[in-house]
Amino acid sequence: MNKILITGGAGFIGSNLALKLINKGYEITVLDNLSPQIHGDTPIETSPLYKSIKDKVKFIQGTVTSKEDWQQALNGQDVVVHFAAETGTGQSMYEIQKYVDVNINGTAILLDILANQNNKVKKVIIASSRSIYGEGKYKTAEGGVVYPKHRVAAHMDTGDFEVKCSKSSEQLVLMATDEESKIHPSSVYGITKQNQEQMIMTVCPTLGIAPVAFRYQNVYGPGQSLKNPYTGILSIFSTQIKNGNGINIFEDGKETRDFVFIDDVVEATILGIEKSEADGEVFNVGYGTPVDVITVAEELIRNYSVEVPISITGNYRLGDIRHNYADLTKIHKTLGFEPKFNFREGLKLFTDWVNLQEVESDNYAESINEMKTRGLYR
Length: 378
What we know:
Elements: E1 3-7, H1 12-23, E2 27-32, H2 36-39, H3 43-46, H4 48-53, E3 58-61, H5 67-74, E4 79-82, H6 96-116, E5 123-129, E6 138-139, E7 145-146, H7 153-156, E8 173-174, H8 188-203, E9 210-216, E10 218-220, H9 233-242, E11 247-249, E12 256-257, E13 259-261, H10 262-274, E14 281-285, E15 291-292, H11 293-304, E16 310-312, H12 329-335, H13 343-354, H14 364-373
Helix pairs in contact: 1-10, 6-8, 9-11, 11-13
């Protein structure tokens, strides 16, 4: 399986994966639309992500919503790694048709071609997401496992942000979320990722194609887009700090995420490509440790040596989860995956890289205003 197509291969994860696979001797084709939200208005000339793979891959500038672009890209491929997607959780709550068109319909076109036209594809890797779980796995004080419903505005308006049992109203205790946990996404983005995963895992086996799904946690590292104000807390905070602007933290700052370094994500994905043990399976990919948002902001400020005020606003976005971190037992046992970069180590590599980049404009307030006008930010 020497020929690999990476959709979204000029993006953050895709470009890093492409370069690693090239070094391993694979022949890589990339299908990417070079979205201005990620790559800027002149991507061919100025996007570092695109330039990192330029002339090293067969590049097709196109979209997964085009059957013709898919047909061109799939020609002769052995493996498809499907990363191309719209990714902003908050943005998905008002650009609903766009997210459905790209994420769900784009995947449907791929599967339609695989089902009805001659091809050589033997494996499809789908980039799923921790967002399909919604809130993660919890337990009660007595030890019973609970998958709580989404938090309600009436509680959060009073500054009560923690997750509670719907029956007893007691505060729940966070647990690592395993692959058998309940799937109940709290955003349109999460719904589309759930749909992508289910379509790939359902259809591919009927075609004799091995499917593998990776539920990535919050991926970060050198090279991620600093232009996108809609997703990527490390990039958003970094741009604010570099502009000398204060950081406004949602809720009480104690909400947590599982941050997984880009090199670890690439390693896990390659294991999925190369190991037959991955075929037909779904895996979490994370570091396996929750980090709260206050810690993120403080560590970034410390690394940049730039003092800006931190404001814990009590504001919140509808559709955001409180906590979720990965149980990595399955991917460790099945594929031998062990993340190598803890958050502090990875963050230092990220901020060292940011220090070498031009400072981007801070457009985060505009993205928040878009949500405010739609009643999604309070």
